């Protein structure tokens, strides 16, 4: 009795693999190639143009002695931690509320998600108007007769980062909500029925039963949002230009300024490499959790 040969896995879905070749080639050349080029020339003495005069870790030593870079790191850490915490909490609460089969669910979901469809430039300009002391909330309230009212987040060195945070959360929370809602809707309805039979309050069911079951969604959302935070740039440019002074400076703006405004390619590439390393630190554990464990369980 002849045993049928198993098809070679290399030739499975061959048409799809051939169709994906241009995308794979582009990714390898543009992303991987440019990343390697960035890392190599971050060790060079490049100024306006790349040069093959390598200086070891001199660019990195200078980078971490520069107060502007250190302030940008501090800002992105504060912004990132607060943005993740607040957007996750608000996003989950909104998802839980919409999950209650409310009327006009599609309308509310569209309203909450709409800001995410806007570019950060548009969001930044809108919130720059709203928070501008001479045009926005402060001036409006004072025109009502409250002449001592002060709301100058965007003009104050100590609070400008929170102005950025308000705009960023307004734009990104709807996206977090949609991912959370997908995770909640993916939970088996039998679990909900069992919780109701046991008399567990709805809020406890969400907090102690549903949330632990959404680990995959939570991790994926964390990775997507965190990777976006690391490269935060256009919101800052549109709202504050890094000011007042350098109070709202972020790493991506530091890279752009040194690459194009100051013509210091080596310094810009060193900063880019640090940002790339940060993204890899975020992505590698996620890839392992998503694919490594699944492969090991097979």
From TrEMBL:
| Family statement | Belongs to the binding-protein-dependent transport system permease family.
Q: In which domain of life is the source organism classified?
A: Bacteria
Concerning InterPro entries, the annotation shows: ABC_transporter_permease, MetI-like, MetI-like_sf
Q: How does it sit in the membrane?
A: Multi-pass membrane protein
Q: What is its main location?
A: membrane
Q: Where is the signal peptide?
A: none
Q: What is this protein's record name?
A: Glucose/mannose transport system permease protein
Keyword Zinc-finger assigned to the entry: answer is no
Q: Mind telling me which Pfam families this protein's record contains?
A: BPD_transp_1
Record keywords: Cell membrane, Membrane, Transmembrane, Transmembrane helix, Transport
Native organism is: Pseudovibrio ascidiaceicola
- Tell me which PANTHER family the record gives: ABC TRANSPORTER PERMEASE PROTEIN (PTHR30193)
**So where does this one cross the membrane?**
21-43, 76-98, 110-130, 160-184, 205-230, 268-289
Q: Tell whether Transmembrane is among the UniProt keywords.
A: yes
Residues in ABC transmembrane type-1 domain copies: 73-286
The subcellular localization recorded is: Cell membrane
């Amino acid at each position: 009795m002849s045993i049928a040969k198993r098809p070679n896995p290399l030739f499975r879905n061959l048409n799809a693999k051939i169709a994906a070749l241009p995308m794979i080639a582009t990714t390898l050349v543009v992303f991987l190639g440019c990343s390697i080029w960035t890392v190599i020339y971050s060790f060079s003495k490049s100024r306006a143009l790349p040069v093959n005069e390598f200086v070891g870790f001199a660019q990195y030593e200078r980078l971490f002695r520069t107060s502007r870079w250190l302030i940008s790191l501090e800002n992105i850490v504060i912004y990132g931690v607060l943005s993740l915490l607040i957007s996750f909490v608000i996003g989950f609460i909104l998802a839980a509320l919409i999950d209650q089969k409310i009327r006009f669910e599609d309308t509310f979901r569209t309203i909450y998600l709409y800001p995410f469809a806007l570019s950060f430039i548009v969001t930044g300009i809108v919130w720059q108007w709203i928070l501008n002391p001479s045009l926005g909330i402060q001036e409006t309230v004072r025109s009502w007769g409250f002449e001592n009212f002060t709301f100058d987040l965007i003009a104050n060195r100590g609070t400008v980062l929170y102005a950025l945070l308000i705009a960023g959360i307004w734009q990104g929370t709807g996206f977090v909500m949609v991912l959370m809602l997908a995770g909640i809707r993916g939970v088996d309805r039998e679990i909900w029925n069992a919780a109701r039979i046991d008399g567990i309050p709805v809020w406890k069911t969400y907090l102690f039963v549903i949330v632990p079951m959404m680990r995959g969604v939570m991790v994926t959302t964390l990775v997507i949002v965190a990777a976006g935070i690391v490269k935060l740039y256009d919101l800052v440019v549109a709202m504050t230009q890094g000011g007042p002074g350098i109070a709202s400076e972020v790493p991506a703006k530091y890279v752009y300024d040194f690459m194009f405004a100051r013509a210091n390619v080596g310094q810009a590439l060193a900063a880019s490499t640090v940002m790339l390393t940060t993204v890899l630190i975020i992505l590698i554990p996620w890839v392992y959790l998503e694919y490594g464990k699944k492969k090991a369980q097979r």
